[in-house]
Amino acid sequence: MLNSLQKGSCHKGMKGSQNRRPGPIFLKVMSHAGWFSGRIVADLVNDVERKLIVSDNWEIFPAARSALLEFGGIQVIQNGPGANAAREPFEINPLLAMGESDRFVPFELVLGKKLYPMGEAATGHYFLAIAEDGQTFLLMHNLVLVGDSFVDALENLITGVRPGIIYNLPGGRDRM
After folding, report:
1. What are 4-27's pLDDT values in tens digits?
2. All structural domains of the chain
């Protein structure tokens, strides 16, 4: 178990209040991608939930459902320098992780909590995943905390805030 995972302890330099409002860059980029305040895509969430329970036995939990209802299907195409890391594209589509549940299990064991796939980031180099408490991660060969909430994570990805590696799998490599 990873005992040092506490808010703020693993992601110096990241913005981190779950209660803060998204900034103007977030609003501009997400609006351009099709998001708007109050957006709800219930049919998409129901479809994702049905397909992922069959393919990987992933059961959706409230934090994942809430984030998907508002942001599901959004794709942000961006690149270039950010605050202290590259701004890279991401897509909020949990079906991109279909058949990959075995990749999530070691990180669930490390964290001691369930993860649900939310999509991909960095042109498919990472899966985007949310925990039951809303913390949002990138994972592939390592586990990276991107935000204490899904909105924080999206804003950090949009503005290019460098996250911190939490855990490397044996043989994993640090791409961040």
Report:
1. 333 333 333 344 444 567 899 999
2. 24-168 (3.40.1580)
